[in-house]
Write a structure and sequence with these properties.
Elements lengths: L5 H27 L9 H11 L7 E4 L6 E3 L4 E5 H5 L3 H19 L2 H30 L2 H38 L8 H41 L1
Parallel strand pairs: 1-3
Antiparallel strand pairs: 2-3
Helix pairs in contact: 1-7, 2-4, 4-6, 4-7, 5-6, 6-7
Length: 230
Amino acid sequence: MLFHPMDIFIFIAFLISLWAQWKVSSNFNAWSEVPASSGLTGAEVARLILDRHGLHHVPVEVVPGRLSDHYDPISRTVRLSEPVFYGRSIASISVAAHEVGHAVQHQQGYAALVLRHRMFPVVNLASGVAPFLLLVGFLLHQFSLIGLGILFFSLAVAFQVITLPVEFNASARAKRFMLAEGIIAPNETRGVNKVLGAAALTYVAATLISVFELLKYVLIFTQGSNNEES
């Protein structure tokens, strides 16, 4: 499979992804140096917001690593990296509030999150099988295998697309929570936007790469099928 015109768009999206990852790291580092006026740690912010929403049963745990923060929907646990858990900066409390946003989404049955959770087992299988089917299909020129690979890969792409509103909504909730509870002052929203906006951009870039790859496979499949028929 030689160069395809769609590879240009994939390469551009890849560059955007690299830039987004750099922005996440640089913004987190910069705003980690800016203390939050509330003086609360990320763990304290997470606990406060969870309790305000009646989520007393959702624990907040510290995990090793940097930017390894996440919400585990299976065990219903908010896990924060050490810099976020113990940090009292704008960056720390922003990330903590964002992860709590996912816990609140789960509690309230946010539609995109529910769909994402239901899709996960199928997508987990599909994303593992798709590359194998596509590789074998292209090597053997078996368009039936390529078509099946595209079908499985499209499920993985759909999962990434659905992830976008989940992440944007969690960030919007985080900002509302912190302002409503007085965790941040209005003049601190710029830092929150910088930290969470950069993180959201990484999801957008990853989705763009997958969408362009899917379009590329669809175009190759369509052209190959037309050539076989003619």
